[in-house]
Amino acid sequence: MSRSILLASAVAALAALSNALWADKPCTTADFEVFSEGFKFPEGPAFDAAGNLYVVAYQKESDIARIAPDGKTTVFLDLGAVKEGAANGMAFNPADGKLYACEYEGKRIIAIDLASKKVETVVDSYLGKPLNEVNDIFLAANGDLYFSDPNREDETTGGRVLCCSIADKKIYLLAEGLAFPNGLTVSRDMKTLYVAQTVRRNVTAFPLSDNGHKAGPGKEIFLMSGGNGPDGIEEDERGNLFITHYGGGRLYYVSPQGKLLGCASGFGANLTNVQAKGDWVYITEAEKGQVLRVKRSHFTAP
Question: Which residues does UniProt assign to the signal peptide (predicted)?
Answer without folding.
Answer: 1-23
